[in-house]
Amino acid sequence: MTTKQEEVRPALPPDPEAYDSPRNAAARRRGLEAGYIAGGTDPDPVTGLREERHYLRLLVAMVIALMLGGFVLGIVIAIATGNLSGNLV
User: What is the pTM of this model?
Assistant: First the structure.
């Protein structure tokens, strides 16, 4: 029988500059042990918001195109099959 030994890494020395960083200070206010806070700070929020608006417009246009495409495809199929009355039988 073999035993698996795990490698034990030595603890890193504390970093006083990292302790005082805005992320770590905000984490300590929230009672977190680690300094990780999801999101972080955006260096240029104006550009990010402009990009989000662009993608929102693109998303709305794609949804409208898909919906209208379904109607157009249904009308084309109805015309091609000669079934304009809507009866599928």
Answer: 0.49
Residue with token string 């009308």: 75
Distance between CA atoms of 46 and 58, rounded to whole angstroms?
19
Q: What is the pLDDT of residues 53-79, one digit of tens each?
A: 999 999 999 999 999 999 999 999 989
Q: What share of the chain is helix, strand, coil (3-state, %, to 5)?
A: 55, 0, 45
pLDDT in tens, 5-44: 667 777 777 777 666 777 778 888 888 877 665 666 777 8
Q: Considering only CA atoms, which of 60, 89, 84 is closest in space to residue 74? A: 84
Q: Label residue 68 exposed, middle or buried (CB < 10 Å: 0-12, 13-18, 19+).
A: exposed
37, 27 Cβ separation under 8 angstroms: yes
The b-or-e profile of 2-25 (16+ CB within 10 A means b, else e) is eeeeeeeeeeeeeeeeeeeeeebe
